[in-house]
Amino acid sequence: xxxxxxxxxxxxxxxxxxxxxxxxxxxxxxxxxxxxxxxxxxxxxxxxxxxxxxxxxxxxxxxxxxxxxxxxxxxxxxxxxxxxxxxxxxxxxxxxxxxxxxxxxxxxxxxxxxxxxxxxxxxxxxxxxxxxxxxxxxxxxxxxxxxxxxxxxxxxxxxxxxxxxxxxxxxxxxxxxxxxxxxxxxxxxxxxxxxxxxxxxxxxxxxxxxxxxxxxxxxxxxxxxxxxxxxxxxxxxxxxxxxxxxxxxxxxxxxxxxxxxxxxxxxxxxxxxxxxxxxxxxxxxxxxxxxxxxxxxxxxxxxxxxxxxxxxxxxxxxxxxxxxxxxxxxxxxxxx
Length: 336
Hints:
This protein is α+β, with helices and mostly antiparallel strands. It has helices at 13-32, 47-58, 72-76, 78-81, 119-137, 154-160, 208-212, 230-236, 244-247, 259-262, 289-293, 297-303, 313-334; strands spanning 5-6, 37-42, 87-94, 107-110, 143-146, 165-166, 172-173, 181-188, 194-195, 218-220, 223-224, 253-255, 286-288.
């Protein structure tokens, strides 16, 4: 891993040496925990990201996700979340597996990130183990683990730490793994040696993600309107019905959507993950529609224990399955 660094702002040479050594050790142990990429940056406000967030919220592009609008300052400044924070350790974990979806109309496609074990658990456990390891070297260390649930702008922090750039589809893109990575942060109360290398945007003139979105959810480069997004509708939306303009254009997706990532040229460089926890569970990459509609609260809880698919809840999954089944019937009748 080649990352340029700048020294911390500590004046004491001994403190600088200690920060350098500890930073190197942290990166080594992060890799040992299974994270393919790691960067360290100072904890401070993300001014540009805050402006972009506030504009996105003002447009109403967060749809019903009201938690996104709560305290933008906390979401863009880790010191509001964890006041002792001095450093942000940002990690990325490759989750790509080579399995493929089928186009069987009796099934629904599941987004790749949810094929295996819940990434909150996998990334979170790795970061907690990393924090424990840091404490053995620096007993004064205190930290907070963040994996998506906490109000952190994960992709912005990953870009700040030099792991990649945020693409026109708003996902992080890395040279090494494309966009098939999970991101997590460890906020730490220690001054460290910081990475200053940023990866420039390599999307260029490509608009494949924008052109391929069946609901035109990418309203302009780097901007997604959740109101039009298949992933939002099939995972976050709690209404009993999926909006017609999305429901008629699901293209077989029952949970999430990978279209904008599947067409991205940078995902030609994907590498198969070495973590078996991300291998497809039973029922993925495609989920049987009839079986989904027959689930009870008890069988649902057992079937999706330890899976990110719990996020949609039973009512959401069954709504999605029924929408796909209805669409398949409509398509069948019109083709006769």
